[in-house]
Write a structure and sequence with these properties.
With 385 residues, this protein is of the alpha/beta class. It contains 15 helices and 15 strands. It folds into 2 domains: 254 residues, TIM Barrel (Alpha-Beta Barrel); 74 residues, Orthogonal Bundle (Arc Repressor Mutant, subunit A). The chain has a 9-stranded mixed sheet with strand order 7-8-6-5-4-3-2-1-9, sandwiched between helices. Strands 10-11-12 form a 3-stranded antiparallel sheet, with no helix packed on it. The structure holds iron/sulfur cluster (SF4).
């Protein structure tokens, strides 16, 4: 367990062995350019440190996401981590997380990752049901996922996260309860539960539009969400953010908490985003474009926007309501010079009366029932800005 620190470092590894039909994250399946990507990444670190002031930040978390970082192999990961430590001040007790696909995990690789300083692993289990995994187009079976969790524990990981996806066609509460039961039996320190949502243009969304399957209706989706909230809370997990549960506050994701808490983060690699109040940038969403830009001595930044005070306030409301602790009135006033209650009171009172929000002297936060309506509640508050 460790404490949160100022900034987060995110490294986007844009490679996957195969593309899952529901996935909208940027990744390619041709790993040939992986060594060139590794070299470009180190060049980006050098440029960011010298040109963008990130050399002065202390990083309390480093997150290798993707894509499938474990597809690179532990040796290249070790080189990337060594480079990050050389170019940036990564705190000695930083949370260092890797996202892992069960199809790419071996005992040897896991030992290599531990030896290179990775201290948290987030395993993309998605489901313990082979039919569901096949529908999702995953490369692994339920048995592979279970083996991956066991191997990670044996390799010495004492902070293991499991990702689950719910809300597949034909989903019901009893099947979902079984999935959670299986997950809890492995005693992971962290569980993320994501509702299957389909972005336009993904093959699975095209299939849905063509009528090949139907997703559960809103009523069932709501029941599944509340089943996760209640079921995992009953088993001792803290529901600390809409999609996230930790066995203890010390096992909340330090890195992701930084996003919800408005801490600065530097994103390296293709399609990675960075934020340092008030500027947000996005890197080029192409491996070759990224490598070419760096080769030409340019920062691989595709878009950059400076958020004005109103936009920052909107983000603070939107992100603050994702967390179970909600929005602290004192923190809001100290950041924006605005009294939260006087601006939002009538809206927040309305949701409180519906049992979707709790408002006390210090904060306002969503109840689990309110989290179901996070988007519309946040939109109603944001309307007041
Ligand atoms: S492995 Fe993960 S990042 Fe890669 S395509 Fe599948 S869901 Fe997307």
């Amino acid at each position: 367990m460790r404490t949160a620190a100022a900034s987060g470092l995110y490294i986007h590894v844009p490679f996957c062995l195969r593309k899952c039909p529901y996935c909208d994250f940027y990744s390619v399946t041709d790993l040939e350019s992986a060594p060139a990507f590794g070299a470009a990444l180190e060049d980006e670190m050098r440029m960011r440190k010298d040109e963008s002031g990130w050399g002065g930040h202390a990083f309390g978390s480093l997150y290798l996401g993707g894509g499938t970082p474990t597809a690179l192999g532990s040796r290249l990961i070790e080189e990337i981590l060594d480079a990050a430590r050389r170019h940036f001040f990564v705190l000695p007790d930083a949370e260092i997380t890797i996202e892992a696909n069960p199809a790419t995990i071996t005992a040897e690789e896991l030992s290599g990752l531990r030896a290179s300083g990775v201290n948290r692993i987030n395993i993309g289990v998605q489901s313990f049901d082979d039919c569901a995994l096949s529908f999702l187009g995953r490369m692994h079976t339920a048995a592979d996922a279970m083996d991956a969790i066991r191997l990670a524990r044996r390799a010495g990981f004492n902070s293991i996260g499991i990702d689950l996806i719910y809300g597949l066609p034909g989903a019901d509460e009893s099947r979902w309860a079984k999935e959670m039961e299986t997950a809890v039996a492995f005693a992971p320190e962290h569980i993320s539960c994501y509702m299957l949502t389909l972005e336009p243009g993904t093959p699975m969304e095209n299939d849905r539009r063509a009528g090949r399957f139907q997703l559960p209706d809103d009523d069932m989706a709501g029941r599944l969400f509340l089943a996760a909230s209640r079921g995992l809370s009953d088993r001792g997990y803290e529901h600390y953010e809409i999609s996230n549960f930790a066995i203890h506050p010390g096992y909340r994701s330090v890195h992701n908490s930084g996003y919800w808490d408005n801490r600065p983060y530097l994103g390296l690699g293709p399609a990675a985003h960075s934020y340092c109040d008030p500027v947000r940038t996005a890197n080029i969403r192409s491996v070759s474009g990224y490598i070419d830009a760096i080769g030409a001595g340019m920062l691989p930044v595709e878009t950059s926007e400076t958020l004005d005070a109103a936009q920052q306030m909107m983000e603070a409301v939107y992100l603050g309501l994702r967390r179970a602790q909600g929005i602290s009135f004192a923190a809001f006033e100290s950041r924006f010079g605005v009294d939260f209650v006087s601006v939002f009171e009538d809206v927040s009172d309305k949701f409180a009366a519906q049992g979707r929000m709790v408002v006390d002297e210090k904060s306002c936060r969503l109840t689990p029932e309110g989290m179901l309506f996070h988007e519309s509640i946040a939109a109603a508050l944001i309307d007041r800005i």
